[in-house]
Amino acid sequence: MRLYLLRHGEAEAPRTSDARRALTEHGRDEVRASAALLAERPLQAILASPYVRTQQTAELVATQLGHRGVIESAEWLTPDSDLREALDRLNERSEDELLLVTHQPLVGALGGLLVHGHRQQPLPMSTASLAVLDGEMALTGGMQLVSLTHPRV
């Protein structure tokens, strides 16, 4: 399994609801830069948190890549979702190439758990950072970090 972890791009400052925050123009540019790193990858599915900024991030990636599949909304990809549930849900998936679009602190903690086997060393994910992990399954400590890129725009 090749798992791509993408944090949403820069979002507008909170006004009312965190879930309604949209991407800024700079955030859109960040996402486009990260999406370019996924060119030629045979993504089989894109899953995204239901928050506006992650849905916008996933849509930008799908458009840039010409991805024809549906972007699945996943409640278990919100900022404070349970890591155990995320692991369980990942292991229900059958895709070989899967993109998750989510938030901090979940994305860093999930990546760290998959690579290091514990929560004490989360992956440092800034806005629109892209982590690429490989492994047989999404098991605690069972995946290898292939790359971690932070967009420069």
From TrEMBL:
Gene Ontology cellular component list: cytoplasm
InterPro entries per the UniProt record, alphabetical: His_Pase_superF_clade-1, His_PPase_superfam, PGM_Phosphatase, SixA
Gene Ontology MF annotations = protein histidine phosphatase activity
Pfam families for this protein: His_Phos_1
Query: NCBIfam families attached here?
Result: sixA
Q: What is this protein called?
A: Phosphohistidine phosphatase, SixA
Which species is this UniProt entry from?
Pseudomonas kuykendallii
